[in-house]
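User: Show me a protein chain along with its predicted structure.
Assistant: Here is one chain, sequence first, then structure tokens.
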Amino acid sequence: MSSSVPEQDPGTTRPGVWLVVGLGNPGPRYADTRHNVGYLVCDELARRMGGGFRAHKSGRADVVEGRLTPPGTPGPRVVLARPRAFMNELGGPVKALATFYKVPVQAVVAVHDELDIPFGALRVKQGGGNGGHNGLKSMQGSLGSPDFFRVRCGIGRPPGRQDPADFVLGAWSKVERKELPFEVDRAADAVESLLDVGLPLTQTRFNG
């Protein structure tokens, strides 16, 4: 986190509250799987925020509320969320949180795994399709729009003829596990950048 107010993209507006959703499946069975990288990034953001996840009163998600800027530095309120629902059903909890906190779809950020991006790379964008990702599909259906932001964490394609569904629900390889903390840290940096300076500058920094 920077101690100075960063340059902001011209024309970028700062929402009063951001909702950052880590996509994943709840429960220990899925904790170490590629599909849960969104949870890991939200865990890192919570650490930076200095808070711990607690149950939201809806009972449908765990949340942390705070700011991702140093104390005394202006910055938007941020709600970090880990839905208590499986991928194909998480849109409902996300919609409930967006309604509760009065967050428009353009201030929702989904952090998720992406098969079409190699491990070690990430992309940030707004809107678009779901690429077969059940979590994005569920969010789009419940929010009624695809226009939320996405921080797409690359996990690459499965080797050989392995079923992609088995691959995303599989554990990280030994090589991936060594690099994973750096990738999670970089994705958390991308979320902070998006909230601080907007999409175009963040894409310039991270989409290379």
